[in-house]
Write a structure and sequence with these properties.
By secondary structure, the chain is mainly β. The chain has a domain of 126 residues. Helix content is 2%, strand content 59%. It is built from 1 helix and 20 strands. Strands 8-9-12-13-11-10 form a 6-stranded antiparallel barrel. β17 and β18 form a beta hairpin. It is elongated, with a radius of gyration of 23 Å. It starts with a strand and ends in a 9-residue tail after the last strand. 32% of the residues are buried.
Length: 285
């Protein structure tokens, strides 16, 4: 085992490059552009700086680098902070080495311009390009326009262009709130080469809250560009005491127009749309 010298040490780009590049592209739940490309192999010639108050330890026999004490890794505009950073690498028979896993432990903060993610533990699987952020009472991601939280974990799947929030997941933008047990966001690249969320799927205990409506369902699919949420399974809409129930609904979060649908003729009487309209009290002169 070998310990390195000063507190602030510069490492070559081989260390942490893959993890940092991917971690910098946090989920933008409702369609904002990602700050950087998701190509973790980009700018491999650029160095990564590691800062740690308690120094950096190199365990050669275990093929691990450990940075402890208010540790920070910086590459370009991407910064990872934690109480401890662990970089696992492997050596090749032909010479050279590469990192295959990065762990961030304790008070984890991953930030790029416009995006910041928080958790107690972050694990990045370089081979499969998967980042899992978990721990603490809540995992949280903030962007310029949105905030996503989850009680269990946030996952970023680069190869599938997908991000998943698990456990009382919630996305908030201004006066719009989307909740579910699990939220999955899907990215695609626009004509300008920027990656954007184009679709969000919500599973189990789905709840949408706007200024006027509260909508409940078993499952929902939100189209970011159109602003339309398609809901299925025990759909209920509540607006100012007026309650509607049906099998499915299309809710336009931009216009506030909701369309409730029945289950179809095959469902019999149980498939009908039902409503309870609450009259407003009218003042008499």
């Amino acid at each position: 085992m070998m310990k390195t010298g000063p507190k602030n040490l510069r490492l070559t780009a081989v260390l942490l490059t893959a993890a940092l590049l991917f971690a910098g592209n946090a989920l933008v739940p409702t369609g904002g552009a990602l700050g950087q490309t998701m190509n973790f192999g980009a700018d491999t010639g650029k160095p990564v700086e590691i800062f740690a108050e308690n120094g950096i330890e190199w365990q050669q026999e275990k093929l691990i680098f450990l940075a402890r004490g208010n540790a920070k890794a910086v590459k370009g505009d991407v910064t990872v902070k934690a109480d401890e950073l662990r970089a696992y690498y492997r050596e090749h028979a032909s010479g050279g080495s590469d990192i295959w896993r990065l762990d961030a432990i304790g008070k984890v903060k991953i930030s790029t311009p416009g995006q910041t993610a928080f958790g107690e533990k972050g694990i990045y699987d370089v081979d499969n390009a998967i980042l899992v952020l978990s721990g603490g009472r809540q995992v949280r991601l903030k962007t310029a326009t949105d905030e996503i939280t989850a009680n269990h974990q946030l996952e970023f799947w680069e190869k599938k262009q997908m991000a998943v929030a698990r456990g009382n997941a919630q996305v908030v933008r201004e006066d719009k709130n989307l909740r579910a047990d699990v939220l999955a966001a899907y990215f695609r690249t626009d004509k300008n080469g920027k990656s954007k969320v184009h679709r969000v799927e919500a599973f189990d205990n789905v709840k949408i809250v706007t200024k006027e409506d509260t909508v409940l369902a078993d499952r929902g699919v939100y189209n970011v560009e159109s602003g339309i949420a398609t809901l299925t399974g025990s759909v209920r809409i509540d607006r100012a005491g007026t309650k509607l129930a049906g099998c499915s609904a299309r809710v336009n979060l931009n216009t506030g127009i909701s369309k409730l649908q029945s289950c179809g003729p095959g469902a019999g009487g149980k498939g009908r749309v039902q409503g309870l309209i609450q009259p407003r009290n009218v003042k008499k002169k």
